[in-house]
Task: inverse folding
């Protein structure tokens, strides 16, 4: 393992990335100032033993998997038969021996006939609205044929980094054209991809599916808060129609073939919160006067002094039907409003649907939604239209975790407690169902629009930045990446270590397994355990599912999760340089059997970039490379990365495909 000297990052990621991606969230006060305690701290050893007995009793049907057997590292697991790549700081995508790679699409590539090729120095908003957007994060591929030769790719464009998009950018005085380019560079892209039988190199195609969602695209607001006074503006007195979506981070593919996408750090786009003196704004990190991008100078909707409710129209889960380019995308208020990383859906035995979603900020919560309606099978337009209403009507819950070890054994270092596991039980606390609120002092509308405040009141458990959360397609176990939280136990007044978040100054994060009781998606209680406690394997306080740590790759700040068809977990990272300045990557890890926990680094992305949106196909893996070259001191005027175009080019966020070479017909991954 290469181990490089520590780089001089504030806590890692370049200042410009922090400012433009999440509005410097890490450098503002944590918005969660609620005093709701962690209940696991309060349980006695005796209760803990009793709780442990309950866990044991239910374990047969719904427990998190056991640790790897000590006599592990035998044959490679199916789907993971590759030699891990070394951690590095290269300005390229590094893949294992025997694999090839190709660029699928780059920022600015045309999505429609007649649109000019990208020209860094001649960009316009009109062109950008028909080209691939900036900073791709989540991606999905909906195959159009059984061999996955063609598919519809959908990607989020989380945010714009103007200093990397324009030469000579003056952050104090952006031009209207620059601002309008940014509006067009946000949102999502939908486009067809195609590859040959003998290569994994997907390339974009013009097709009837191709579509750009920008800040000008109309969305329909649905669910119990649609039409609420809290969502009405001068432009939309109905509170049901919003133009655009912003800061779309991760997402999911629904079982009915639509795309969900989370509006994450929406707070940073709204100016003049300071004058409003509204604690509900502060709870969402909406603070200050002028914004970084100064959009408020060009459209009053970004100015809270003029449009106080516009901010309430962001922070939702959106749903898009990529099969129908004329469809109106939806904002689902029934899933609550917070900094949604993502949402992912599973179908319960009786046909109702369950959606999981995390609120990606330090000390925020994990949520679950259970629909009232049942899924309609089939892939007809009518079935999709019906299924797209399922997330509008149901009950929203928030998670409360309880550890089964005594609080005294959770010492904040990450040292395992005497029962050998960070684990325990938990429950889903109801917040609202339709027009009914379960939160004292809050109406249902308020619960949906100010969900964080509702969750504070019912004593939800403060987690270390819940990022992607997804249900294993075969076992039903839910996996959640908890990225990091360097303020846990450090900032005065903030919560210290708890069993599900067992490290103070948590730089590297953890991966949580959550198994609903009796394996029932509708259950309101669950068992949980930490599968990974991330970091360098030679740190005694890291944990890799019980696997021999001399065999695993180092990992920091898990972000997106995905599964392959063999049931292995894949994890991409957003380490902000926290892994001693090493590049981010994509990892594969078995979840079962003697190889459980054998984490291997599959690829790394270029300097300054983040690995996002992994899609693990049968023959091709794709990842999004977000913000390549964004390191301190760099800009469009002083690029430190020339990926992917090389020469003296500026870096371009892009999607990369990776496949195994050397077979007459393309082989399987791993
Ligand atoms: Fe956009 Fe949660 O990271
Ligand atoms: Ca324990
Ligand atoms: Ca992230
Ligand atoms: Ca991300």
Result:
């Amino acid at each position: 393992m290469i181990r490089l000297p520590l780089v001089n990052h504030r806590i890692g990621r370049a200042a410009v990335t922090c400012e433009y991606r999440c509005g410097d969230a890490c450098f503002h006060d944590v918005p969660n100032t609620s005093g709701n305690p962690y209940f696991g701290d309060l349980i006695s050893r005796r209760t803990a033993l009793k709780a442990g007995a309950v866990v044991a009793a239910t374990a047969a049907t719904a427990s998190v998997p056991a640790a790897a057997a000590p006599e592990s590292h035998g044959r490679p697991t199916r789907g993971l038969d590759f030699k891990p790549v070394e951690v590095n700081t290269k300005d390229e995508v590094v893949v294992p021996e025997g694999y090839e790679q190709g660029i699928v699409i780059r920022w600015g590539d045309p999505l429609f006939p007649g649109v000019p090729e990208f020209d860094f120095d001649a960009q316009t908003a009109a062109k950008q609205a028909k080209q691939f957007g900036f900073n791709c994060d989540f991606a999905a591929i909906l195959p159009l044929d059984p061999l996955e030769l063609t598919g519809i790719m959908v990607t989020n464009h989380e945010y714009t980094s103007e200093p990397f998009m324009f030469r000579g950018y003056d952050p104090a005085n952006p031009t209207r054209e620059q601002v309008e380019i940014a509006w067009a560079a946000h949102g999502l892209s939908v486009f067809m991809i195609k590859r040959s039988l003998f290569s994994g190199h997907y390339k974009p195609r013009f097709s009837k599916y191709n579509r750009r969602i920008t800040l000008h695209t109309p969305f329909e607001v649905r669910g119990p808060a649609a039409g609420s006074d809290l969502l009405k503006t001068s432009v939309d007195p109905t509170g049901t129609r919003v133009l655009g979506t912003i800061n779309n981070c991760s997402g999911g593919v629904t079982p009915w073939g639509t795309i969900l996408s989370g509006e994450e750090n929406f707070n940073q786009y709204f100016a003049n919160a300071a004058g409003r003196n509204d604690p509900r704004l502060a709870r969402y990190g909406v603070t200050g006067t002028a914004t970084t991008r100064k959009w408020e100078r060009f459209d009053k909707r970004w100015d809270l002094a003029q449009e106080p409710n516009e901010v309430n129209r962001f922070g939702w889960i959106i749903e898009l039907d990529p099969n129908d380019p004329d469809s109106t995308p939806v904002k689902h208020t029934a899933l609550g409003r917070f900094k949604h990383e993502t949402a992912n859906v599973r179908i319960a035995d009786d046909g109702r649907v369950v959606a999981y979603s995390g609120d990606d900020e330090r000390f925020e919560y994990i949520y679950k939604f259970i629909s009232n309606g049942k899924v309609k099978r089939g892939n007809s337009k009518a079935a999709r239209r019906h299924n797209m209403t399922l997330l509008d009507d149901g009950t929203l819950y928030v998670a409360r975790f309880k550890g089964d070890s005594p609080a005294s054994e959770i010492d904040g270092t990450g040292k395992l407690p005497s029962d050998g596991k960070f684990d325990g039980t938990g429950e889903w606390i109801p917040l609202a169902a339709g027009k009914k609120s379960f939160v004292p002092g809050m109406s249902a509308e308020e619960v949906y629009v100010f969900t964080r405040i509702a969750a504070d009141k019912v004593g939800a458990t403060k987690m270390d930045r819940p990022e992607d959360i997804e249900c294993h397609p075969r076992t039903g176990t839910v996996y959640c990446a908890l990225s990091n939280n360097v303020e846990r136990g450090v900032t005065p007044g903030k919560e210290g270590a708890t069993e599900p978040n067992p490290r103070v100054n948590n730089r590297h994060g953890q991966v949580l397994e959550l198994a609903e009781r009796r394996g029932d998606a509708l259950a309101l209680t669950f068992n949980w355990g930490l599968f990974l406690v991330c970091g360098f394997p030679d740190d005694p306080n890291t944990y890799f599912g019980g696997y021999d740590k001399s065999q695993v790759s180092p990992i920091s700040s898990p972000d997106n999760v995905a599964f392959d068809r063999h049931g292995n977990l894949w994890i991409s990272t957003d380490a902000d340089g926290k892994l001693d300045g090493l590049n981010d990557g994509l990892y594969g890890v078995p979840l079962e059997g003697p190889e459980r926990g054998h984490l291997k680094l599959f690829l790394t992305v270029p300097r300054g970039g983040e690995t996002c949106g992994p899609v693990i196909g049968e023959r091709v893996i794709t990842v999004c490379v977000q913000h390549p070259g964004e390191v301190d001191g760099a800009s469009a005027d002083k690029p430190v990365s020339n990926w992917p175009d090389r020469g003296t080019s500026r870096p371009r966020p892009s999607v990369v495909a990776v496949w195994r070479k050397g077979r007459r017909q393309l082989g399987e991954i791993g």
Remarks:
- Residues 1-11, 41-61 have pLDDT under 50 and may be disordered.
- The radius of gyration is 23 Å.
- Residues 467, 559, 574 surround calcium ion (ligand 3) (CB under 6 Å).
- The CA atoms of residues 293 and 564 lie 39 Å apart.
